[in-house]
Structures are given as C-alpha cells and as structure tokens.
Amino acid sequence: MTAAPAAPTRAPSARLARISGVVAPLTGLVLVLVLAAVTTPQFYSLEVARLVMFQIGLIGIAALGQTLVLLVGGIDLSISGVMALTSVVLATYSAGSDSRLLVGVVLAVLAGLAVGLVNAGLVVLRNVPPFVATFASFVLIQGVIIAWTRGAPSGNIPDALGWLGGGRIWEIPVPLVVFAVLALVAGIALGRTTAGRRVYSTGLNREAARMSGIRTGIVIASCYILSSLAGVLAGLINSSFIGFVDAALVRSLDLDSIAAAVIGGIALTGGKGRISQTVLGVVLLAALLTWLIQLGAGGGAQLVVSGGVILLAVFLQNRGLGLLSPRARTTRATPRKGKQ
Amino acid sequence: MVPAIALGAREVTKSFPGVRALAGVTFAVAPGRVHALLGENGAGKSTLIKILTGDQTPDSGTVVVADEEVSFGSPRDALARGVTPVYQELTVLPEMTVLDNVMMGHESARRGVLRLREQREHARRALERVDLGGLDLGTIAGDLSLANQQLIEIARALVRRSNVLILDEPSAVLSGDKLEALHSVVRSIAAEGTAVVYITHLLDEVRLLADDVTVLRDGTLVSTGPAVDYPMERIVREMVGRQVDSVFPDPAPPRDEVVLTVSDLVPRGAEVAPVSLELRAGEIVGLAGLVGSGRSRLLKTLAGVRGRGEGTVAVEGRPLRPSLGATIDAGVVLVPEERKRDGLVLDLPVSQNCTLTALRSISTAGWVDGGREKAAFAEERERLGIRAAGGDQLARQLSGGNQQKIVIAKWLRVSPRVLLLDEPTRGVDVGAKSEIYRIITELAANGMAILLASSELPEVIGLSHRVLVFKDGAVVGDIPRNPDAAEQIMHLALGTES
Questions:
Q1: β-pairing, B34-39 with B195-199?
Q2: pLDDT band with cut points at 50, 70 and 90 for residue A248
Q3: A329 and chain B: CB distance < 8 Å anywhere?
Q4: Cα nearest neighbour of A189 on chain B
Q5: CB-based contact (8 Å) between A200 and chain B?
Q6: The pLDDT of residue A124 is above 70
Q7: CATH homologous superfamily of domain B7-240?
Q8: Three-state DSSP class for B266?
Q9: What is the pLDDT of residues A133-167, one digit of tens each?
Q10: What pLDDT does residue A270 have?
C-alpha cells in the first residue's frame, strides 16, 4: 500500500481551480487582441500601445487598492471620489506652481487618508455595509468639491508633476512602471507575509480569524486606508497627465477597478484571489476599453461592454466555484458580528 | 374517516458524514393525542422532526401521513399535507402586525390583492383557539410577550388547518402560568382531533400533558407507549441508557496548583446566578447540562469572546482583563462549539489554519517562513494523529474529526495553560472520538487545565475528574468522578430531584 491512503484529490482540484481562474480572462484577452487586429489594425501602433499601457497603469493602481478591500470582504466605491479630491486639492494648494508642489501632494495624501479612515471607521466600528459606507463617502466628497469650488473646479497642476503621468522610462509610461512595482510589492505581501495571511483569513472567515486572536478590525481598516491612498496616487497620475483640474474628467475608476479585479477572478465574497489575477484583469480591461475607443464607440457603449464583461466574469466565477466546491453557505454569524 | 396514524415514521434511517443520526426508527402519532418525544441532546429528535416535516429526506424508510406512505420533497409538501411545525426559535416577525404574522404564508388573496375581511376572520378564529381572542389584530407582534408570540406561532399553524402540530420545546421560553395556558391550548387543540407531537425537556410536562411517549437515544427508538406506563424514573433511565463505557482512558490525578480561578462570574447580558470555580493544573472538569443551560456562554465568557457582566477571572493568581487578546496571551483558549463557523478558515490550507494563532512564531519581521510553517504542522500532525493529504490540503476537505484536531492543534501552537472545549466531539465519528478523548487525557496529564462542555453525558462522565451540572446558567451540582453518575446528573440538569 502506498503512503497517505485516504489522500483526497487535492492537488488536481487546486490546480484546476487555479487554471480555471486564469483561463477565462486569458481567453478574453486573446480574443480582444485578435478582434483588435482584425477590426482596428492601428491598435498595434506605438501610439495606441502607449495608451493601453497608460490605462493599465492608471486602472491598475486603483485596482490594487480595490483588490485589498475585496479580499477582506468589502468594496470601495469612493476611489474616484478620492481621485477628484486629489486633483482639486493639488490644484488649489499648489496653484500650478512647482515650488508648492510638495504642499499640494502632502495635503492630497492627508485628504485621501481622511477618506480612508472614515470608510474604515464606518465599516469596522459602526458595522455599516461597505457598499453604503464607501458610496456615502463618494457622494460626500462630490458635494464637498462642488461646494468648495462653487461647482466649477479649475486650476492647473504643477508641471513638475507632469513626469508622473506623462513621462516614460525606455518608452514605457511611468504609470505602468509604478503599477508594476506596486503590484509586485502587493503580490509578495499577500503571498509571503503574515500581513497577507491576516488579510486572507479575515476575508474568508472573519469570526474564526478574530477568535484566533487576529485583530480583524485593524486588518480591514488598513485595507480601506491603502485603497484610498491608491486612489490618491491614481488621482495624482491622472491630473498630472491632463495638466489641469476638471472634476468631470475623472473617470469612473471605481467601476473600472472593481471590473478589473472581478474579471481577473477576485471573489466579491472576500478572501479569494491573487494579485496576479488582478493584473491580468487590468490588462484585459485596458485592452478592451482602448479597442472600443479605436472602434469609435462612445462612452455609452464602453459602459455597456464593461458592465457586460463584469456580469460574464461573475457568472463564470460562480459556476467555477460551484463546480469545484459545492459551497454550502455557512449560516451567518450573529447579526452584530456578521461578515460584511 | 379518522386515520389510525396521523403522522408516523417507518424504519427511518438517516446518516450524516461520520454520524448515524437515526437508525430504523418507527413510531406513530394518533389523531387527537399529545405525543411526547423525549431524548437527550443529540438523541436524534431534531433529525426525526426535520424528516417528518420534509426539511430533510431519510436515507431509507418512509414517513406516514394519515395512514398513507408519503415522500416529502420540501417543507412545503409537508405543510400541504397538514403537518405543521412550530419551531423553538420563534419566527414571528416583530415589525409586523398580529394579523400579518398569523396569516403569513397563507394569505387569502384575489389576484394578488389581499382580501382583508376574510384574512381578519381567519386570524380571529385561530386566535380564539389559542385563547388570544381579545387581542387587537393590529398590535405589533414585537410588543407582545414571548409567551404570546409563541401562541401567535401556534395560531399561524392552526390557520393552515393542520392535522398534525409539531411543537419543538415550547416550554423552553415559557414558565409558570404561561406554561399552563399553553398546556390548555394544546389540550383543546388535541381534543378537536389534531395530533400533537410535543418535544420537551421538562419531564413534568409529560405527566401533565402527554397521552403517549416515545424515547429516543443515540438515534434509535428505546420504547414507545402510553404515558401512564412512564414514571419519571423510567424516562430518565431510558434517556440515559446503560453507559459504562470503556473507551475512556483513566485521567492522571490533577496537580495541586490552581491555574484558573473564576469568582462570581456573570456573562454580559445574562441574568443568571454568578458562577465560581477553580481549575487545577492537569484537571479535567466537565460541564453538563441541557442545551441553553449556560455552558457555552460560560466558556465563551472565559475565553474573552463574550463580555463579562460581573465577576473576576484570574490565571495563576493574576487577574485577567476581559479581552480576547489578553485572554489568549494569558494562555486561556477556546475550541468553539461551531467548528466551521468560529474555529476554522475552511478555504485555507490546513497548515495555515494550524498556524493562524501563532503567526509570529513562523515568521521573521513579518516574513512567513514556509519551512517553519511546515515543521509546525508536521509536529501537530504527529502529536494529534491528523489525517490529511498534506499541509496544503484545504481544511474544508477534511473529515469532522480531523477538522476538530486542526482546531485543537491551532491552540496547542500557543502552548495554552487552560483549554476550553465546547462540544469537542460534535459531528465526529466514533473512531476520531476516542482519539480526541486520548488527546484530552494526555494534555491534562501534561499539566494543562481543561474545561469540557458536552451534551454527551458518557463523555463528560468518562473524561472528567469532576462534573459541574448547569441549569439555567447556574451550577446546581459538583459531582466527583463516578461512572454511575449519569442519572444523578440528568436529574440535576432537568430539575427533577428524585
């Protein structure tokens, strides 16, 4: 008799889960690239490639923060609010002058931190559902911006920051480089550190993690704060790229970041998914959006396609999970301590 | 034509992974009679009820309704046949009116629009039958007393023209004259020809109310017959059974040093008598009592999972702050009752579950050392005999017994002084049970102090140096090790001092 007599078939099923998680987004990416080659040959020009790379960087940074929040079972709808706030704060306090750039950046970071703390406080201390808490933050920020700027935000971004959004390192846009570095750091932190362990166990079973002595409140709060800081960074990149403030120009990066993570295979229920999956989702989404623009599709069509892709991704995700591990949903914990 | 059997089971068998919940149970309830269903916690009563009400399907055997063999696909099927359960947990919606609650799920309507007058008449008639005729239909249900909410539940069942009413421990929330009112309602319902299955832990109710009695133990039927043949002693004896089991290793004598001192402890939000106890190193103290008697609540409070209302806890003479972190640091840890919900992260590998409590010990500056993690798991696997394909197998995929060992292992990583075990062998198969017994005995022999709460009397008696009996949150007995203490404990727990 061989060793481990009752060895269940773990290895194949785990590998299958891993593969099935990647197959769908990879297929999607190949499909987009092929369709782009056929319908819009100019997609493969250097110019468009740079656009795709910029998009990957911008969406990707927000998606990293979003992934952290999703992993602890939350959702952050305030990222684009933070981005808008960042550009307004930056323009107002630096007034387009390079010498005051640092002041503007520091204040923008502090503003982002404040939003992150509010989100974390609402979710952790008051048990407000994350959807409601972060959406309320978003609306609040919008209101503050409109009241503060009398509805017409304006101003210039210091030129010195231009490098962050528009610069290149060996033809590679700086935002992509920043994203790549952050993705690497996040990937390692989640996979190899105790902090990562705490994030996954909190997202998978908050009650068991808490009763094992993990301070789940601090874990969750950290993720919201990091997500807001990612929003600040994305805001700096975006505003330095366009060079002036126009709150209306801030794209709906909340949706894009959620879409990228979900397409990559991060579960909305928390605790499942890796940073590499988010990266794949980001690349797919950026390629898809750019291709749609090349096709001449308007904003409406872009939203329709994004929405459709998210639905498809969630559908595939649920089926995949359903096939691999029939999830008998465990009953919720007591209402007060229940998972968000 | 009145059927001979209103509701019955024929040779019903049901197994869950690792546990045989019911084995060939046959019983019958006659129309117009109150049938008491008795048994210890875990004897199979709930499973039987779930099968009779279509909530679960039997592995083999059939359910009989009105002399006909039926197979229920869902609770809806059972309701359609006139079999209506009233569960222990109240399902009254507190925000809605009495009328809406009584008619819930059975509204009379035309094209989706409620026919209010008809609704009112039906509800009024049902309420009269449960002696709530004077109640305003517009009253918000949440404003009613628990006793009246219970009656609302029964009225809801009556609206459905039930032929069989199943009452799952209605006496758990009622007492005194409320209980008497309930009894008279039950009697009058039975007198109208409805069969009533009545589950209770209060053996007095059997004498007062029951026409027939069925006793279950360990998933099998012990006996069934008219209530007059069942004096209290017989019921207790049959519920407990012979239980001098040899699977329990004799525990080593405890040491003198007191590890845990609990003084006048009252769990937060509980209105119960304060509990005081001392636990010595190497001592196993069993906590016996019915479900809801306060054992779990005490363990959770000691573990810092639940807040303290009053009282103090000290570990080796040092007072303990009532926080989860401080409690774990002091070496007091809980293996919780709800293993899957509170004990494990099911979708993490077993090795990661094992080190969840001691992440610092397997890391350097926050960096997880895979080698040390493997070694930690290997050590526990060896010590506890955990059967897993490997450290990276998901906890979800293990059997109940091995999952429980993982939860114990995770706490052994922090070298606790006091181990609190809540139902450590629930949902665990027989083989793994005796291994867990061995582990508990060995840990105690090595000086760990152990508090063990279990609904299985033989287990508590067989493992412990002494047994504390709980009733309504208070300790009503402290019984030294004695293999024949089962009936004495049962009487104390039930409050039927013989």
A1: parallel
A2: low
A3: no
A4: B367
A5: yes
A6: yes
A7: P-loop containing nucleotide triphosphate hydrolases (3.40.50.300)
A8: strand
A9: 898 998 898 888 888 877 666 777 777 777 777 77
A10: 84
Distance CA B155, CA B186 (A): 11
**B70 in contact with A, Cβ within 8 Å:** no
Sign of CA dihedral A188, A194, A195, A201: positive
Interface of A with B in 7-26 (CB under 8 A): 7-8, 10, 14
CATH code linked to domain B258-494: 3.40.50.300
Measured CA distances, B180 to B133, B171, B205, B404, B472 (Å): 17, 10, 10, 43, 20
* Inter-chain residue contact A208 with B345, CB threshold 8 Å: yes
Mean pLDDT highest for which of A235-244, B165-174, B273-282? B273-282
Domain boundaries, chain B: 7-240, 258-494
Interchain CB distance below 8 Å, B346 and A205: yes
pTM: 0.72
Structure tokens at B465: 């140096």
Let me know how long chain A is. Answer: 340
A332: which residues sit within 8 A by CB, 6+ positions away?
A: A338, A339
Q: Which CATH number fits domain A41-323: 3.10.620, 1.10.1060, 2.70.98, 1.10.3470?
A: 1.10.3470
Integer angstrom CA distances of residue B71 from A210, B51, B74, B81, B210 = 43, 10, 9, 11, 28
Whether the predicted interface score ipTM is above 0.85:
no
Three-class secondary structure of residue B323 per DSSP: coil
Q: What φ, ψ does residue B350 adopt, rounded to 5°?
A: -60, -35
In 3D space, the residue among A212, A278, A241, A220 whose CA is nearest the CA of residue A67 turns out to be A278
Which of A208, A213, A214 is nearest residue B344 as measured by Cβ atoms? A208
**Contact criterion met (CB below 8 Å) for A20 and A14:** no
Q: Do A200 and B348 touch (CB under 8 A)?
A: yes
Residue at A89: amino acid letter: V
Find chain A residues with C-beta within 8 A of B344's C-beta: 205, 208
Domain boundaries, chain A: 41-323
Q: Closest chain B residue to A208 measured between Cα atoms?
A: B342
Euclidean distance between CA atoms A159 and B398, whole angstroms: 60
- Tens of pLDDT, residue by residue over B448-469, are 999 999 887 888 988 999 999 9
Structure tokens at B139: 């009253």
B30 burial level (CB within 10 Å; 0-12, 13-18, 19+): middle
